[in-house]
């Protein structure tokens, strides 16, 4: 199965449409399946504080709303990005952070909705998403198992038939000891749903490992330059890393194979080279009893198999054998 790879541009465009389009270009070059942005009309009050990582990266003087307004794209700009993606053969995606944004994105006929971790406990929002009847990919950062179960139940009872759960740790960047990839398997076993990873760790090894563990969706923040000012740049990978991640994931998909344990056609010629046969340990005369003193097992494997050892021991040599010659019994 092909893993869905979402290149999360998020707000790494810094409110600049030229940067946003460059991010789309880089996601396309890297081979990602989707480039994803964030759509918000009115989701933050003037009293909302910044997260500590946001203060660290953008300063503590402004509110979260003030920061968001600088980074927010208007709906018509999102439509322009949607059209730009279509023009270059790239798939546009965006996360809705409020109900107005849900309605807008639904009008674009996107293949699924991406629910961010912060909306798992937003009942009106979940009902609006469910009403679209589209598949859902839902991140689970900050969530307890009962909160995830409740969100799933709300979605399913109100129109959502397909849900994929993403293990996520809502901290930027996520320390390796907090990634908890095994929680992805816990989600899979508990809810019997497809799973994946929304990753905020540094580097690309965690998403690659997640695919090896069965992730069906990978979401990863990327930026044009990690040194840019903004809340998410430092927790993002750059274009060359995104390309390397996509390539590695595609290789892992192939390497996972079909799970059948057989001797493949590519291996078969190496049986003769790598396996062992029963051979003369020293020169042997015709009629001599074959014992552990005069026979042994060595490569190549095109003679009597070493697994026939006890069938050969105690029999008589049917002819003279030189040292290292393959033993035959008929």
Automatic annotation (TrEMBL):
Signal peptide: none annotated. Its EC number is 2.5.1.56. SUPFAM superfamilies: AFP III-like domain, Aldolase. Residues 277-330 form the AFP-like domain. It holds the Pfam family NeuB. Keywords: Transferase. GO terms for molecular function: N-acetylneuraminate synthase activity. This is N-acetylneuraminate synthase.
């Amino acid at each position: 199965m092909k893993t869905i790879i979402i290149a999360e541009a998020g707000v790494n465009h810094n409110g600049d449409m030229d940067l946003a389009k460059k991010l789309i270009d880089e996601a396309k070059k890297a081979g990602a399946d989707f480039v994803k942005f964030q759509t918000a009309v009115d989701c933050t009050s003037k009293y909302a504080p910044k997260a500590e990582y946001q203060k660290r990266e953008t300063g503590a003087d402004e509110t979260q709303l003030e920061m968001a307004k600088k980074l927010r794209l208007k709906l018509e700009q999102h439509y322009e990005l949607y059209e730009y993606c279509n023009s270059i053969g790239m798939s546009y995606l965006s996360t809705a952070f409020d109900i107005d944004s849900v309605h807008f994105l639904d009008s674009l006929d996107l293949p699924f909705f991406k629910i961010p971790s912060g909306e798992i406990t937003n009942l009106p929002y979940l009902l609006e998403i469910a009403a679209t009847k589209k598949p859902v990919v839902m991140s689970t950062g900050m969530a307890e198992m009962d909160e995830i179960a409740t969100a799933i139940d709300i979605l399913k009872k109100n129109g959502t038939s397909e849900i994929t759960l993403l293990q996520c740790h809502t901290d930027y960047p996520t320390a390796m000891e907090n990634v908890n990839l095994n929680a992805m398997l816990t989600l899979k076993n508990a809810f019997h749903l497809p799973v994946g990873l929304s990753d905020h760790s540094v580097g690309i090894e965690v998403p690659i490992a997640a695919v090896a563990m069965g992730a069906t969706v990978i979401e990863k923040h990327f930026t044009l330059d990690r040194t840019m000012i903004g809340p998410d740049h430092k927790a993002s990978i750059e274009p060359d890393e995104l390309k390397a991640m996509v390539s590695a994931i595609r290789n892992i998909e192939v390497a996972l194979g079909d799970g059948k344990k057989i001797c493949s056609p590519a291996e078969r010629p190496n049986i003769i080279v790598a396996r062992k046969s029963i051979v003369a340990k020293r020169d042997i005369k015709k009629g001599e009893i074959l014992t552990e003193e005069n026979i042994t097992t060595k490569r190549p494997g095109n003679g009597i198999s070493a697994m026939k050892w006890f069938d050969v021991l105690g029999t008589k040599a049917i002819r003279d054998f030189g040292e290292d010659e393959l033993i035959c019994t008929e």
